[in-house]
Amino acid sequence: MVTLSLDNVSVNLGRRPVLNAVTATLAPGELIGIVGPNGAGKSTLVRSLLGLLRPVGGMVALDGQAVADMPRRQVARAIAYLPQGQTLHWPLSVERLVALGRLPHLGPMSLISAGDYAAIEDAMARADVLGLRDRIATELSGGERARVLLARALAVEAPGLIADEPLASLDPGHQIDVLELLTREAQAGCMVVSVLHDLTMAARYCDRLLLLNGGRLVADGKPLDVLTPERLRSVYGITARIEDAGGWPSIVPLRRDVPA
C-alpha cells in the first residue's frame, strides 16, 4: 500500500501561481476524485503528485519521502499513471501495448519474464480486454482503447493509480465501465485518484472528492458534503439541483448563476 501527502503545496507554471497551499492526504482503499472548473489546477495537482512538477512551496511526499527527489523508476513502480488525451500512433498489438506497463520493472537489456507475462495477463483480465489481445491498438474504438490503456497502467502492479480525465470522449456506458474498474481497484486496496468533470459520476462513484478552485483546495470530503448547492454556485457559477435518482445522487445544472 502507498500514501501520498501534500503539505501546503504551491506550484507555479512560469511566473503564474497555479496551486496555492494545498494540503491533503491520499490513502489506499478509496476512489478519490479531483474536481473543479476549467483552470482550477487539477492536472497541475496530478503532475505534482507524480513529481513531474516541483513545488515552489511545501512538499508532496510518497510514504514520507519527497516525490520530487525520488528516482523516476521508483515513483513509476509505486504509482501507475494514465495521462489524459492519449493518442496511439504505433500499430502495436493490444498485448504488446499492455506489456509497456512493465517497463518500470525492466532494465535496459532485460527480457520479459514469466512474472511479467503473468502481470500482463492479469491486467488484461481485470480490464476485460483479453479478447482484444491480438487486435491492433490503433484500430480500437474509443471505449476499447480506454480499457486497454487502463490495462497498461494496471500491468505496472503499482499500489497507487492516478488517472487524469479517464472519461474524456467516452459514451455513458463506457464511462460506467471505467469507473467501475477504478472502484474495484480501490476496493482491492489500491490508492486510486482520478480527475473528473462529470459531477454526477463523481458523486456516484467516488468515496471522496477534492474540490479545487483558483488553485486552492476549497473542500475535501464525501461527495455530497463537497458538492453542495452553495459550492456549485460559488465555484462553478451555476444553480444546480441535487437529486436522489433511485438511491444514486444526480447533479442537475439548471442555469448559469454568477461568474465562477
UniProtKB/TrEMBL annotation:
<dbReference type="InterPro" id="IPR003439">
    <property type="entry name" value="ABC_transporter-like_ATP-bd"/>
</dbReference>
<keyword id="KW-0067">ATP-binding</keyword>
<keyword id="KW-0547">Nucleotide-binding</keyword>
<protein>
    <submittedName>
        <fullName>ABC transporter ATP-binding protein</fullName>
    </submittedName>
</protein>
<dbReference type="InterPro" id="IPR027417">
    <property type="entry name" value="P-loop_NTPase"/>
</dbReference>
<dbReference type="InterPro" id="IPR003593">
    <property type="entry name" value="AAA+_ATPase"/>
</dbReference>
<keyword id="KW-1278">Translocase</keyword>
<comment type="function">
    <text>Part of the ABC transporter complex HmuTUV involved in hemin import. Responsible for energy coupling to the transport system.</text>
</comment>
<dbReference type="Pfam" id="PF00005">
    <property type="entry name" value="ABC_tran"/>
</dbReference>
<feature type="domain" description="ABC transporter">
    <location>
        <begin position="4"/>
        <end position="239"/>
    </location>
</feature>
<dbReference type="InterPro" id="IPR017871">
    <property type="entry name" value="ABC_transporter-like_CS"/>
</dbReference>
<dbReference type="GO" id="GO:0005524">
    <property type="term" value="F:ATP binding"/>
</dbReference>
<keyword id="KW-0813">Transport</keyword>
